[in-house]
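Example 5.3 — Anti-sigma factor ChrR (Cupin superfamily)
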Amino acid sequence: MPEATRESLTQGSWRELDFEPFRDRVMIHWIKRFESDQPGVALLRYEAGASVPRHRHEGLETILVLTGTQSDESGDYGAGTYIVNAAGTEHSVWSDTGCVVLIQWDRPVTILQGR
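Solution (predicted structure tokens):
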């Protein structure tokens, strides 16, 4: 498996990584799984039209959109966009076109309902 680095991820090396199912039509590649009180870091690959239902952030979440467009109730975020979602915030996420994002969660989210 290739090493995931800043430089290689922004240049598309994520295409060579192994992904596993995460949610319907959303795949995940764990860079660092959650451990005790340590954050989780992963790549999420959304198929066109995929979504993640409304959820609450139990800790800080940061996202870098690598390709495509990710959307939530506040807007659309294209490649290169850096998104910060504070602890306690809620939203649902989708991608009409498909996208790949680098994501770090301080803590797992709590799913609230479907989109």
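Remark. The chain has one domain: 6-113.
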